[in-house]
Amino acid sequence: MLQVSSLVSDCKANSSTKTNTVGLWVTVDEAARPDVVIYYLHGGGFSMGSSYFYLEFLLAWLEILQKAGYHNPAIFALEYTLVPDQIYPLQLQQTVSGYEHLCSIIKDPGRICLAGDSAGATLQLSLLLYLSKASFPGRESEEQQQRMPGFATLISPWPTLVTPKNRDTPSDYLNAESLHLYGRQYAGPTSNLKDPLVSPGVCKDGEWWTRASPSGGFCFMYGSEEVFGPEVRDLIALLRRNGCAVRVREEPGQVHAWPVVSLFLANTLGERTKGLRDLTKMVREMLDGLFMLLTLSTVMAIA
Asked: Cα–Cα 20 to 30 A to 116, which of 26, 44, 62, 140?
């Protein structure tokens, strides 16, 4: 039973198996083209979780997107293969396939917002690095930029899979030692832990991150008490040093993936949906600003 059932209306959640991409397609009107698509990847240490477990979270977000003024928002939540059934690179390959599937639907990648929590947010960072990789065969830099998403909103990403900076805190429910075990299992050969496409936080190449930045930039939401806090702050600082647009919400006293956790555990409706409302506000501001900028550029070019 949905704890926030009052937020859900006229929503449809269907499984998608097109182009070998499997996941949940949550929308208001499946016959119409969406005006914004959230591409969501769930967390769970690469070895747990499912988009179906997140269905209440996704439906609540869809309703909030509607209230923010989107006429036909949609969310696609990818069902990627979990460890130990498969390890890297399959999960990244599935993430890329899901993104290409969405690009074929919405046509304008600028209307796609990458999103995810924990390991899912890490896969989104890997996707951005993959799309912008300088040695990507047969793709010029201008074409690369045209295929980048409009925005990325990352909830408590796991930038570097194995690092001493991932340390237990008195408040967070995560355990660094267990996380490092999950990270090693996902990566496979130890040498992969040095590959930015596996562990994005090891990438210190500012130019690569600049190319990887979505058109509207990044949003990071995380708790001040979480295990990944130091690594998230380091990544934010690196992005900002290299001119990337970054918005940050470090919630005081909160733990890992607090917008997701709050939806299930908070006491009041306002507290449950606070993270989602904050995310939606930033998505709307950044994507609308990007759309206005592109429209102005087109008008000036015609003139």
From this structure: 140
Q: How far is CA 202 from CA 4, 28, 168, in A?
A: 39, 39, 20
> If we measure between CA atoms, which residue out of 87, 138, 110 comes closest to residue 297?
110
Tell me the backbone φ, ψ of residue 152, rounded to 5 degrees. -135, 120
Per-residue pLDDT of the chain (303 residues; tens, 9 = 90+): 333 333 333 455 565 665 568 899 999 888 888 999 999 999 999 999 999 999 999 999 999 999 999 999 999 999 999 999 999 999 999 999 999 999 988 888 999 999 999 999 999 999 999 999 854 555 545 565 668 999 999 999 999 999 999 999 999 999 999 999 999 999 999 999 999 999 999 999 999 999 999 999 999 999 999 999 999 999 999 999 999 999 999 999 999 999 999 998 888 988 999 999 999 998 888 877 655 454 444 444 455
157/142 Cα distance (integer angstroms): 28
Cβ count within 10 A of residue 248:
13
DSSP 126: H
CA angle at residue 285 from 279 to 288, to 5 degrees? 130
What is the chain's Cα-based Rg?
18
CB 16 within 8 A of CB 24: yes
Given a contact cutoff of 8 angstroms between Cβ atoms, the answer to whether 36 and 113 are in contact is yes
Residues 6+ apart with CB under 8 A from 64: 7, 273, 276, 277, 280
Enclosing H/E stretch for 92: helix 90-106
Residues 161 and 177: their CA atoms lie apart, in Å, by 11
Spacing of C-alpha 55 from chain mean position: 16
Q: Are the C-beta atoms of residues 62 and 28 closer than 8 Å to each other?
A: yes
Give the residue among 146, 149, 129 at the shortest CA–CA distance from 206: 129
